[in-house]
Amino acid sequence: MPHNYCPSPLEICMLFVTSEMHPFIKTGGLADVSSALPAALQRMGVEVKVLLPAYRQVKTKLPHARPICTLPDMRGEEKVVIRETFIEETGVTVLLVDYPAYYDRPGGPYQDEHGQDWHDNLMRFALLSKCAALLAGHASPLDWHPSLVHCNDWQTGLTPAYLHFWEHRHIKSVMTIHNLAYQGIFPSWGVTDVGLPESAYGLHGVEYYGNFSLLKAGLNYADHITTVSPTYAQEIQTDELGFGMQGLLQHRQLQLTGIVNGIDVRDWCPANDHNIPAPFSLHNLPDKALNKAALQRRMGLEVRDEVLLIGAISRLAHQKGLDVLLQVLPRLLEQPVQLALLGSGEQALEQGYRHLAAQYPGKVAAHIGFDESLSHLIEAGADVFAMPSRFEPCGLNQMYSMRYGTPPIVNATGGLADTVVDAQPDTIANGLATGFVFAPLNEDTLHSALLRALSLRQDKTSWEQLQRNGMNRDFSWDKSAAQYVRLYQDLLRT
Ligand code: ADP
Ligand code: GLC
């Protein structure tokens, strides 16, 4: 190969390793990204195979995945079956790590039905990472050899470490941080259990304050680190949002890039969404009101168009700041306002919202659970969407909202700061404003942002302009996928 050779996208083969992928298994945005980014890369000519555990739900949805090889399990016994299936709609091939003892169980990918972490998560995700390293490595049983491995979050963090310790030839890897708050922390004795040498346990290895961190393994041994927005790439280098990794991330800042997520514009298309009763676009925006009425009926809210209907769809976790919204609501509900919330997670928050809904029947509705179809109806039917996150690596719902003519109300952090433009007279007039941005997060700032929305909605012309601005923005993956391709090219340049 000539010196300084840069491969074209058509020459790049990539193994994309992830613990979630829509529509097969999803707890959050990682699933959406793991389906839409590989599809976008594939459209650009990159050949992508996605490696995913064969959880029970995944096996049910992909019953025809055929076995293509076996790999050793964590004890070295040749008992892991790798299955392959081709997804027609996206052109992406999915490889499943079929190992029933780890993945074929009821409950979620990380936790049982009672919200407890699976006791064997270390081994479950070490196996996923190990399979990725073996499929990319010199002894792969496949005749498909990826030029690089793209890992996502702590569940895949051991892959770069395995490649580092097991391979003589350097196999390039990228580690994407979707959320630094989740680090895959396990007791230090796990290091040798997962097949790493003792020498890996150190400040410049996988050691993290006396424990073993799978994410740190990825951050140390990957060739490049990305995260899901430019602002978050800066924030994670600070004491405030670095979750103890800020030193390492500062040290690697030249190999750290923030690339904002896109969204799947086919899945989230108000003009062609089978989950909503009245599809709409810029050409028939008033039809959005039909979805509002449908949402109000479905959630048991009073069917009234003049109230400001606030939507929220979220994991109920501290990160999302919905405890602050809960505090603000009694004050806000003195105004003509309603809330439609869909979410699940921390018990105190679930209870808090259930309680509020009982106190304000017809004004507050809380659906506790996970419901894909209702999430589309909320995006379509709500007037505004609340995302008061304490931190948000990227966030997808604010983009879904803008696409559905539902201006988001967001704290200026991470990807929210990078994707939403605050409504001010000048930004509305020049076509830039898409929502309401406030900072810092507290009850007063959130309250006044909500009041600002309530008041601007009285001005029909400005409101419609705000909606149109968001609907006109291009949130497709094309631009961001092109940035990933350039990054892969730089890494593979000889
Ligand atoms: P995070 O990944 O931190 O949860 P994102 O905004 O990136 O946040 O993505 C969350 C994704 O999960 C969105 O697609 C959102 O619609 C979806 N989601 C979250 N909670 C629920 C729920 N209870 N029901 C349906 N979809 C949900
Ligand atoms: C994480 C983040 C979220 C991001 C998603 C996909 O779960 O919390 O902000 O959008 O990953 O990258």
Keywords:
single chain, 494 residues, alpha/beta, binds adenosine-5'-diphosphate, binds alpha-D-glucopyranose
Please provide the count of β strands: 18
What percent strand?
A: 15-25%
CATH architecture of the largest domain: 3-Layer(aba) Sandwich
User: What composes the largest sheet?
Assistant: 9 strands, mixed
Write down the overall mean pLDDT: 97
- Alpha-carbon distance between the termini? 8 Å
Q: List the total number of helices.
A: 19
Which geometry do the CA atoms define? globular
The CATH topology annotation of the largest domain reads as Rossmann fold
The H-level CATH homologous superfamily of the largest domain, spelled out, is Glycogen Phosphorylase B
Strand order of the largest sheet: 3-4-5-2-1-6-7-11-12
Report the uncertain regions: none
Overall tally of structural domains: 2
Helix content bin: 25-40%
Structural class: alpha/beta
Bound molecules: adenosine-5'-diphosphate, alpha-D-glucopyranose
- Identify the CATH class of the largest domain: Alpha Beta
Instruction: Determine Rg (CA atoms, Å).
Output: 23 Å
What is the strand and helix layout of this fold?
Elements: E1 13-17, H1 29-43, E2 47-53, H2 56-61, E3 66-71, E4 80-87, E5 92-98, H3 100-103, H4 121-136, E6 148-152, H5 158-166, E7 172-177, E8 185-187, H6 190-193, E9 207-208, E10 211-213, H7 214-221, E11 224-227, H8 230-235, H9 246-251, E12 256-258, H10 288-298, E13 308-316, H11 322-332, E14 337-345, H12 347-359, E15 364-368, H13 372-381, E16 384-387, H14 397-403, E17 408-411, H15 414-419, H16 425-429, E18 436-438, H17 443-456, H18 460-472, H19 478-492
Parallel strand pairs: 1-2, 1-6, 2-5, 6-7, 7-11, 11-12, 13-14, 13-16, 14-15, 16-17, 17-18
Antiparallel strand pairs: 3-4, 4-5, 8-10, 9-10
Bound molecules: adenosine-5'-diphosphate and alpha-D-glucopyranose.
Adenosine-5'-diphosphate (ADP) binds next to helix 1, strand 13, strand 14 and helix 13.
